[in-house]
Amino acid sequence: MSTPPNSELKQSVCSGNLRREMAHSDNPLSAISVGNRLELLRAAMQLQDKTLAAMIHASPQKWGNWKSGRNVIPHDFAARLCAVTGATTDFIYRDVRDRMAEGLAEKIAKVEAEIAPKKPVRRA
Known about the structure:
Elements (H helix, E strand, L loop, with lengths): L16 H8 L6 H15 L3 H7 L4 H9 L6 H11 L3 H6 L9 H12 L9
């Protein structure tokens, strides 16, 4: 099963591209999966891409490459991201959601639920 081109991930979480990519990404360790979690975290924090990039001293271009899955966020930037958001590197790299700042996992789950594909209602 092939994944959509990374260029599709540049659009916002509302566009549905993240939803489609999440459905195609079976490996939580893949660059695309890590990028999806970066976008979930950004959306949960209600921050713009450029704002979050500035907070961790990264260029918007680097942030975009990490978020799109072109590159995996380096550990030093992931540590900065954790320091400013309350996330953990276990969440960023492996999708392990315990030990995050209080309420953050719930915010992420809420964003995830908003973009999750809706199951069709079957009529009898």
